[in-house]
Q: What sequence folds into this?
């Protein structure tokens, strides 16, 4: 069987507009209102009219048919829509699907969107069914699954809770530079703060876990020929790949190795760049263990070596790796599904570097001369892994 | 005529039926001579359908373990672990008869059938 060259997708599409809205606390706003508001803001950012949108991609924990509900709310009739739900990484896979649909000409303008008011209405929101063979033991999902992975990681590689805490401390240091971050004015964290926070599921305490906020986001994508004529710096999708294996943590083949090993390898291959070429690294940090696992699985170091890599604030603003530069899910924003926010940050860093005004940061919050970003999404319980590689025009 | 399913009930119900008979049964693929869990209609990954139920030894090893913190008025802290059965497959369960935060990776455990929230469940004790 002849296989088409997937690298044909490289650089064929670009994000030309983005927005977030209602991040933090948005009392009085519904998930749909926050999501739709993000779409309109992203279209305004792109300078593209709503009636040009013919591709709609969305997933939330509030809508069983999110792409349809969003299209209806916007008042448009898409020619292609996808509401695939693979957890928090859904949007990075939507971006891959949108790129395919744009590239073959099914659609001309795609929006990928998310919205949540979980914090305002009482906390973490899920529409997940109960897992057979697990639910009766009452795991506190998703935290228990990540705690099981963290415990195993500590066992296999001799990591300590302090090693996990280093991740949270650096995430907070980035957030202190970002006025958009929920914890911007909450001061720095120490390792001791993280260790002494209320235990949730051992070994994870409250500060090993992401924020619970409201918030929505959207990106606008189009083909690269059109992207050149939009008002902002287009940021090109150079590579994208996904993989998943399990839905339940008890089915995870190896608790310390995720499908990100494979998704990132294929995404980097499509992009023709390596992990070490990335100027910014945006990883889905729902829990501190995520950052350690994904630094390893994406190839920034060998398995077990992230323990050393995150020491001495090396993934903070003063460090050598620019990881989760918005403050991450741990300290910037986490409205239940965080995938679009790693995407926004990956792209904002590149646009800022190219001269677009994408907001204010304190000194060091924007990465100088950033041309390549990796955005990595995670969904379920270390289940679905999707990697997107983004670059400015000179990286094409 | 619709095609028939193999067996009178599905593997999930069969597993529960065995529990109610006091048996912890897992599936084995005869041609591969490999066990698997959770119960399925075919061997995961390759799809072999020559399956049989075999009583598990009940002996396993703690693969990972957590203490889930819960307010005393809601039942208090409890253990939740992943257990690798001696036959090979891994499953979620609780280890009881020990402080929930004292279970350690690598400990040998033995299964018993117990009641949890009104349903039969596999619970492990330290061996």
A:
């Amino acid at each position: 069987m002849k296989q088409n060259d997937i690298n044909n997708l490289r650089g064929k599409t670009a994000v030309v507009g983005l927005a977030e809205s209602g991040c933090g606390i948005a009392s009085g706003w519904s998930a749909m209102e926050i999501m739709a508001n993000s779409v309109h803001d992203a279209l305004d950012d792109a300078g593209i009219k709503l009636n040009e949108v013919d591709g709609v991609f969305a997933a939330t924990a509030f809508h069983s048919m999110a792409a349809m509900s969003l299209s209806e709310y916007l008042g448009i009739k898409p020619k292609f829509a996808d509401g695939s739900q693979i957890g928090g990484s859904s949007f990075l896979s939507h971006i891959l699907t949108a790129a395919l649909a744009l590239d073959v000409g099914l659609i001309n303008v795609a929006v990928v969107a998310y919205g949540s008011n979980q914090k305002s209405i009482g906390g973490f929101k899920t529409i997940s069914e109960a897992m057979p063979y697990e639910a009766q033991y009452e795991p506190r999902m998703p935290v228990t699954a990540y705690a099981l992975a963290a415990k195993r990681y500590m066992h296999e590689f001799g990591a300590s809770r302090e090693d996990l805490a280093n991740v949270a401390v650096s995430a907070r240091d980035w957030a202190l530079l970002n006025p958009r971050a929920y914890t911007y004015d909450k001061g720095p964290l120490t390792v001791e703060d993280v260790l002494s926070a209320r235990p949730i599921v051992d070994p994870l305490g409250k500060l090993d876990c992401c924020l619970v906020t409201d918030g929505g986001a959207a990106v606008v994508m189009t083909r690269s020929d059109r992207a050149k004529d939009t008002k902002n710096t287009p940021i090109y999708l150079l590579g994208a790949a996904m993989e998943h294996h399990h839905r339940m943590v008890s089915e995870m083949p190896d608790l310390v190795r995720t499908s990100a090993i494979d998704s990132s390898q294929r995404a980097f291959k499509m992009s023709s760049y390596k992990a070490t070429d990335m100027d910014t690294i945006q990883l889905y940090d729902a829990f501190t263990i995520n950052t350690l696992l994904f630094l390893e699985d994406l190839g920034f170091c060998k398995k077990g070596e992230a323990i050393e890599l995150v020491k001495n604030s090396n993934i903070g603003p003063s460090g050598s790796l620019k990881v989760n530069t918005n403050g991450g899910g741990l300290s910037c924003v986490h409205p239940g599904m965080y995938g679009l926010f790693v995407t926004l940050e990956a792209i904002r860093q590149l646009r800022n570097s190219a001269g677009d005004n994408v907001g204010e940061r304190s000194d060091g919050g924007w990465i100088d001369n950033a041309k390549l970003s990796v955005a990595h999404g995670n969904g379920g319980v270390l289940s679905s892994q999707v990697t997107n590689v983004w670059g400015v025009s000179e990286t094409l | 005529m619709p095609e028939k399913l193999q067996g009178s009930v599905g593997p999930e119900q069969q597993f529960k039926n065995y529990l109610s008979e006091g048996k912890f049964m897992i599936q084995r693929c005869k041609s591969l001579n490999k066990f698997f869990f959770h119960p399925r209609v075919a061997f995961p990954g390759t799809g072999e359908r020559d399956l049989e139920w075999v009583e598990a030894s009940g002996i396993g090893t703690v693969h990972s373990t957590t203490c889930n913190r819960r307010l005393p008025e809601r039942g208090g802290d409890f253990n939740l672990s992943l257990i690798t059965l001696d036959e090979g497959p891994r499953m979620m369960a609780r280890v009881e008869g020990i402080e929930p935060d004292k279970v350690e990776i690598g400990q040998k455990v033995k299964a018993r059938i117990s009641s949890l929230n009104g349903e039969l469940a596999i619970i492990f004790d330290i061996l």
